[in-house]
Amino acid sequence: MNEKRLETAASNGSGTVAKAFQIIQYVTSSARHSVTVSEIAEELSLPRPTANRLISNLIKLGMLKRDGGGTRIIEGDELLHIAGDVLEGAASRGPRHEILRQLVIDTRETANVGAVSSGQIVYLDRVEAIWPLAFRLDVGSRVPLHCSAIGKVLLSNMPQAQRRKYLDAMTLSRRTDNTICARDALEAELDNIRDTGVAFDNEECFEGVIGIAVPVLFKQNQHSMGLALVAPSARQTLEGLRDFLPAMKTAAANLAKCYPD
After folding, report:
1. How far, in Å, CA of 157 to CA of 221, rounded?
2. Whole-model pTM?
3. CA 200, 202, 204, 210 torsion: positive or negative?
4. Cα 139 from chain centroid?
5. Tens of each residue's pLDDT in the chain, 261 residues
6. Domain locations in the chain?
7. Do you know which Pfam families this protein is assigned to (predicted)?
8. Backbone torsions φ then ψ of 14, nearest 5 degrees
9. Which CATH superfamily is domain 79-257 in?
10. Domain 3-75 classification at class level
11. Comparing 3-75 with 79-257, is the CATH topology the same?
Protein backbone atom coordinates (compact mmCIF):
# COMPACT_ATOMS: atom_id res chain seq x y z
CA MET A 1 0.00 0.00 0.00
CA ASN A 2 1.20 3.52 -0.79
CA GLU A 3 0.77 5.39 2.53
CA LYS A 4 1.80 8.75 1.05
CA ARG A 5 -0.90 8.60 -1.64
CA LEU A 6 -3.58 7.75 0.93
CA GLU A 7 -2.45 10.56 3.22
CA THR A 8 -2.57 13.00 0.29
CA ALA A 9 -6.08 11.88 -0.63
CA ALA A 10 -7.23 12.21 2.96
CA SER A 11 -5.82 15.73 3.31
CA ASN A 12 -7.56 16.91 0.13
CA GLY A 13 -11.11 16.41 1.37
CA SER A 14 -13.34 14.63 3.86
CA GLY A 15 -16.58 14.39 1.88
CA THR A 16 -18.20 11.34 0.33
CA VAL A 17 -16.29 11.61 -2.93
CA ALA A 18 -12.96 11.89 -1.10
CA LYS A 19 -13.79 8.85 1.07
CA ALA A 20 -14.80 6.83 -2.01
CA PHE A 21 -11.55 7.81 -3.71
CA GLN A 22 -9.55 6.74 -0.64
CA ILE A 23 -11.30 3.35 -0.69
CA ILE A 24 -10.45 2.83 -4.37
CA GLN A 25 -6.83 3.81 -3.73
CA TYR A 26 -6.56 1.45 -0.77
CA VAL A 27 -8.04 -1.50 -2.67
CA THR A 28 -5.87 -1.03 -5.76
CA SER A 29 -2.64 -0.35 -3.86
CA SER A 30 -2.91 -3.13 -1.25
CA ALA A 31 -0.21 -5.78 -1.36
CA ARG A 32 -2.72 -8.55 -2.18
CA HIS A 33 -4.85 -6.33 -4.45
CA SER A 34 -7.85 -7.46 -2.43
CA VAL A 35 -9.14 -6.38 1.01
CA THR A 36 -12.11 -6.94 3.29
CA VAL A 37 -14.65 -4.36 4.38
CA SER A 38 -13.24 -4.56 7.90
CA GLU A 39 -9.73 -3.82 6.66
CA ILE A 40 -11.00 -0.81 4.70
CA ALA A 41 -12.93 0.55 7.67
CA GLU A 42 -9.95 0.12 10.00
CA GLU A 43 -7.33 1.53 7.61
CA LEU A 44 -9.38 4.60 6.69
CA SER A 45 -10.92 5.12 10.16
CA LEU A 46 -14.45 4.79 8.80
CA PRO A 47 -17.46 3.59 10.77
CA ARG A 48 -18.41 0.12 9.54
CA PRO A 49 -21.88 1.24 8.27
CA THR A 50 -20.27 4.09 6.31
CA ALA A 51 -17.70 1.75 4.78
CA ASN A 52 -20.45 -0.73 3.83
CA ARG A 53 -22.55 2.00 2.20
CA LEU A 54 -19.68 3.49 0.22
CA ILE A 55 -18.42 0.12 -0.93
CA SER A 56 -21.93 -0.96 -1.98
CA ASN A 57 -22.27 2.18 -4.08
CA LEU A 58 -18.85 1.66 -5.66
CA ILE A 59 -19.80 -1.93 -6.50
CA LYS A 60 -23.02 -0.73 -8.15
CA LEU A 61 -20.97 1.71 -10.24
CA GLY A 62 -18.54 -1.04 -11.28
CA MET A 63 -15.61 0.61 -9.54
CA LEU A 64 -15.21 -2.35 -7.17
CA LYS A 65 -16.49 -5.91 -7.00
CA ARG A 66 -16.36 -8.94 -4.70
CA ASP A 67 -13.66 -11.41 -5.68
CA GLY A 68 -15.52 -14.51 -6.85
CA GLY A 69 -18.61 -13.40 -4.96
CA GLY A 70 -16.76 -13.74 -1.65
CA THR A 71 -15.89 -11.26 1.08
CA ARG A 72 -12.74 -9.74 -0.39
CA ILE A 73 -13.04 -6.54 -2.43
CA ILE A 74 -11.10 -6.04 -5.68
CA GLU A 75 -11.11 -3.55 -8.57
CA GLY A 76 -14.28 -3.59 -10.66
CA ASP A 77 -14.65 -4.05 -14.40
CA GLU A 78 -15.66 -0.44 -15.02
CA LEU A 79 -12.61 0.79 -13.10
CA LEU A 80 -10.43 -1.42 -15.30
CA HIS A 81 -12.02 0.06 -18.41
CA ILE A 82 -11.33 3.58 -17.13
CA ALA A 83 -7.75 2.62 -16.29
CA GLY A 84 -7.31 1.26 -19.80
CA ASP A 85 -8.59 4.50 -21.32
CA VAL A 86 -6.24 6.51 -19.12
CA LEU A 87 -3.29 4.30 -20.03
CA GLU A 88 -4.14 4.56 -23.72
CA GLY A 89 -4.17 8.35 -23.57
CA ALA A 90 -1.00 8.56 -21.50
CA ALA A 91 0.85 6.01 -23.61
CA SER A 92 0.10 7.78 -26.86
CA ARG A 93 1.77 10.93 -25.52
CA GLY A 94 4.71 9.47 -23.66
CA PRO A 95 8.13 8.00 -24.33
CA ARG A 96 6.76 4.45 -24.01
CA HIS A 97 4.77 4.93 -27.19
CA GLU A 98 7.84 6.32 -28.94
CA ILE A 99 9.82 3.21 -27.98
CA LEU A 100 7.15 1.03 -29.58
CA ARG A 101 7.04 3.27 -32.65
CA GLN A 102 10.81 2.96 -33.10
CA LEU A 103 10.62 -0.83 -32.72
CA VAL A 104 8.00 -0.93 -35.48
CA ILE A 105 10.23 1.20 -37.71
CA ASP A 106 13.16 -1.16 -37.07
CA THR A 107 11.23 -4.42 -37.54
CA ARG A 108 8.34 -3.37 -39.79
CA GLU A 109 6.01 -5.48 -37.61
CA THR A 110 3.19 -4.51 -35.24
CA ALA A 111 4.31 -4.06 -31.62
CA ASN A 112 2.22 -4.09 -28.47
CA VAL A 113 2.60 -4.03 -24.71
CA GLY A 114 0.26 -6.00 -22.46
CA ALA A 115 -0.31 -6.89 -18.82
CA VAL A 116 -2.41 -9.33 -16.83
CA SER A 117 -5.83 -8.01 -15.84
CA SER A 118 -8.71 -10.11 -14.49
CA GLY A 119 -7.15 -13.32 -15.75
CA GLN A 120 -6.54 -12.07 -19.30
CA ILE A 121 -3.97 -10.03 -21.19
CA VAL A 122 -5.07 -6.45 -21.83
CA TYR A 123 -3.23 -4.39 -24.44
CA LEU A 124 -1.90 -1.20 -22.87
CA ASP A 125 -0.30 0.28 -25.96
CA ARG A 126 0.10 -0.68 -29.59
CA VAL A 127 1.72 0.62 -32.76
CA GLU A 128 0.61 -0.86 -36.08
CA ALA A 129 2.91 -1.85 -38.90
CA ILE A 130 2.15 -0.34 -42.28
CA TRP A 131 1.34 -3.49 -44.24
CA PRO A 132 -1.70 -4.56 -46.27
CA LEU A 133 -1.72 -7.78 -44.21
CA ALA A 134 -1.34 -6.23 -40.76
CA PHE A 135 -3.23 -7.70 -37.79
CA ARG A 136 -5.17 -5.05 -35.86
CA LEU A 137 -6.47 -5.02 -32.29
CA ASP A 138 -7.24 -1.86 -30.35
CA VAL A 139 -5.64 -0.77 -27.09
CA GLY A 140 -7.83 -2.21 -24.33
CA SER A 141 -8.50 -5.43 -26.25
CA ARG A 142 -8.18 -8.63 -24.25
CA VAL A 143 -6.78 -12.04 -25.19
CA PRO A 144 -6.40 -15.26 -23.18
CA LEU A 145 -3.30 -15.95 -21.14
CA HIS A 146 -2.73 -19.52 -22.27
CA CYS A 147 -2.54 -18.94 -26.03
CA SER A 148 -1.04 -15.47 -26.44
CA ALA A 149 2.70 -14.80 -26.56
CA ILE A 150 2.53 -12.10 -23.86
CA GLY A 151 0.24 -14.27 -21.73
CA LYS A 152 2.61 -17.21 -21.85
CA VAL A 153 5.73 -15.15 -21.16
CA LEU A 154 4.10 -13.58 -18.09
CA LEU A 155 2.68 -16.90 -16.85
CA SER A 156 6.10 -18.51 -17.23
CA ASN A 157 7.77 -15.94 -15.00
CA MET A 158 5.24 -16.11 -12.18
CA PRO A 159 6.21 -17.88 -8.93
CA GLN A 160 5.07 -21.50 -9.11
CA ALA A 161 2.26 -21.02 -6.57
CA GLN A 162 0.90 -18.01 -8.43
CA ARG A 163 1.14 -19.75 -11.80
CA ARG A 164 -0.68 -22.78 -10.40
CA LYS A 165 -3.45 -20.54 -9.10
CA TYR A 166 -3.96 -19.01 -12.53
CA LEU A 167 -3.88 -22.37 -14.32
CA ASP A 168 -6.32 -23.89 -11.83
CA ALA A 169 -8.77 -21.05 -12.42
CA MET A 170 -8.62 -20.79 -16.21
CA THR A 171 -10.28 -22.86 -18.90
CA LEU A 172 -7.80 -23.88 -21.58
CA SER A 173 -10.25 -23.20 -24.36
CA ARG A 174 -9.35 -24.02 -27.95
CA ARG A 175 -9.08 -20.93 -30.16
CA THR A 176 -7.38 -22.56 -33.14
CA ASP A 177 -6.05 -25.98 -34.15
CA ASN A 178 -2.69 -24.99 -32.61
CA THR A 179 -3.98 -23.88 -29.18
CA ILE A 180 -2.33 -25.81 -26.34
CA CYS A 181 -5.28 -27.13 -24.33
CA ALA A 182 -3.58 -29.88 -22.28
CA ARG A 183 -2.40 -28.70 -18.87
CA ASP A 184 0.79 -30.83 -18.87
CA ALA A 185 1.78 -29.64 -22.35
CA LEU A 186 1.17 -26.00 -21.42
CA GLU A 187 3.22 -26.30 -18.22
CA ALA A 188 6.11 -27.84 -20.17
CA GLU A 189 5.85 -24.95 -22.66
CA LEU A 190 5.89 -22.41 -19.81
CA ASP A 191 8.95 -24.03 -18.23
CA ASN A 192 10.79 -23.77 -21.54
CA ILE A 193 9.75 -20.12 -21.93
CA ARG A 194 11.01 -19.35 -18.42
CA ASP A 195 14.39 -20.87 -19.35
CA THR A 196 14.71 -19.13 -22.73
CA GLY A 197 13.06 -15.81 -21.85
CA VAL A 198 11.01 -15.74 -25.05
CA ALA A 199 7.50 -16.94 -25.95
CA PHE A 200 5.98 -17.67 -29.35
CA ASP A 201 2.39 -17.71 -30.52
CA ASN A 202 2.24 -20.17 -33.41
CA GLU A 203 -1.27 -19.30 -34.60
CA GLU A 204 -2.53 -20.39 -31.17
CA CYS A 205 -4.79 -17.41 -30.50
CA PHE A 206 -5.86 -16.32 -33.98
CA GLU A 207 -5.73 -18.27 -37.23
CA GLY A 208 -3.10 -16.83 -39.53
CA VAL A 209 -1.39 -14.70 -36.87
CA ILE A 210 1.96 -15.46 -35.22
CA GLY A 211 3.78 -13.60 -32.47
CA ILE A 212 6.82 -13.38 -30.24
CA ALA A 213 7.05 -11.85 -26.75
CA VAL A 214 9.65 -10.98 -24.14
CA PRO A 215 9.11 -9.78 -20.56
CA VAL A 216 9.59 -6.17 -19.53
CA LEU A 217 11.93 -6.53 -16.58
CA PHE A 218 11.31 -4.17 -13.67
CA LYS A 219 13.10 -3.76 -10.35
CA GLN A 220 13.83 -7.00 -8.47
CA ASN A 221 13.26 -9.05 -11.65
CA GLN A 222 9.51 -8.49 -11.59
CA HIS A 223 7.73 -9.20 -14.88
CA SER A 224 4.38 -7.41 -14.84
CA MET A 225 4.31 -6.47 -18.52
CA GLY A 226 5.24 -8.11 -21.80
CA LEU A 227 6.34 -6.74 -25.17
CA ALA A 228 5.28 -8.53 -28.35
CA LEU A 229 5.56 -8.39 -32.11
CA VAL A 230 2.76 -9.92 -34.18
CA ALA A 231 2.49 -10.61 -37.89
CA PRO A 232 0.41 -12.56 -40.41
CA SER A 233 1.79 -16.06 -40.99
CA ALA A 234 1.20 -15.55 -44.73
CA ARG A 235 4.02 -13.00 -44.74
CA GLN A 236 6.25 -13.77 -41.74
CA THR A 237 7.64 -16.85 -39.95
CA LEU A 238 8.51 -17.61 -36.33
CA GLU A 239 12.19 -17.78 -37.24
CA GLY A 240 11.86 -14.43 -38.96
CA LEU A 241 10.38 -12.97 -35.78
CA ARG A 242 13.19 -14.54 -33.73
CA ASP A 243 15.66 -12.41 -35.68
CA PHE A 244 14.11 -9.35 -33.99
CA LEU A 245 14.95 -10.55 -30.45
CA PRO A 246 17.92 -8.17 -29.96
CA ALA A 247 15.79 -5.17 -30.93
CA MET A 248 12.92 -6.40 -28.73
CA LYS A 249 15.13 -6.87 -25.69
CA THR A 250 16.56 -3.39 -26.11
CA ALA A 251 13.06 -1.96 -26.41
CA ALA A 252 11.90 -3.92 -23.32
CA ALA A 253 14.83 -2.57 -21.29
CA ASN A 254 14.03 0.97 -22.42
CA LEU A 255 10.36 0.49 -21.54
CA ALA A 256 11.29 -0.61 -18.03
CA LYS A 257 13.25 2.63 -17.56
CA CYS A 258 10.08 4.63 -18.24
CA TYR A 259 8.51 3.39 -15.00
CA PRO A 260 9.61 4.65 -11.57
CA ASP A 261 10.99 2.14 -9.07
Report:
1. 9
2. 0.66
3. positive
4. 12
5. 445 444 444 444 458 899 999 998 898 887 767 899 999 999 999 999 999 999 999 999 989 998 877 889 988 888 888 877 776 666 555 788 899 999 999 999 999 999 888 788 988 888 888 876 556 677 778 899 999 999 999 999 888 888 999 999 888 999 999 999 999 999 999 999 999 999 999 999 999 999 999 999 876 555 678 999 999 999 999 999 999 999 999 999 998 887 655
6. 3-75, 79-257
7. HTH_IclR, IclR_C
8. -125, 5
9. GAF domain (3.30.450.40)
10. mainly alpha
11. no
